[in-house]
Amino acid sequence: MTSVAAPLLATSSRPTSGSTSRWLWRPRLTAAPRLRLLCLPYAGGAASIWRPWLDLVPADVDLCPIQLPGREGRFTEAHITDPEVLLAELHEALTPWLDRPFVLLGYSMGALLAHALACRLRPAEQSRLQRLVVAACSSPEHPPRIDPERVGREALLTHLRELGGTPPAVFEHEELLDLLLPMLAADFGLVARLRERAVTGGSARPRRLDCPIVALGAHDDSHAHPEQVARWADWTCGGFQQTSVPGDHFALWRQPELLLRAALSTRVEEACGPARFGVP
Q: Considering 108, 138, 139, 244, which one is annotated as catalytic?
């Protein structure tokens, strides 16, 4: 199920294969990977949403989904909505895994978090960051579409319906919504704080990254218009590539091969492919 409801339906379980820590799930142990692919989820997403990628990622690439607090094996932990606190803890946890070339890939909320993490890296770590891949996300300076601290339950539900990633049946189950909405409110709050941080400044935040940015969006995504996605070019001096595909906010999620090509291509110019490059 490719939706924000998926992790809620499996909150009693956690990934079981590979190596699991509080912050990082390595579903397939690779002794000497040529690259680590660090994946950050959309709002409400958990590490298990990346499980289908196991059949697509090359054997010499270490697939490393990030597990944020408040979901799956960390369901009893409090959500962290202060970006400075979250980034500090996440960076500390990931430091041992940044010893070889790596890519940061984030979807929607995960794109903002991946960017903020990239800005926080130490110089030696930044030198090993091959690229930042951002999907279904407008560039950081755009204001949030919703701030859950200023809206009620119905506005939050409307926003969730507009995103289009949750099965309609979920909205008919009040008990499930009672579990789902606090997680989403926390994540949407984090998005709002990350965007505010990008404008007002945060600790260890350079204006531009040295690594390339590959930005992907969808034509009909009302939450990340292609023009807004294009502004990611202002956040790097290391090269930029953009592609736009037909569909809504989760259109790219249904095309994992495209996301993987963006992450794993040897050159940024090849990441999106000539047939898909550019905004129509």
A: 108
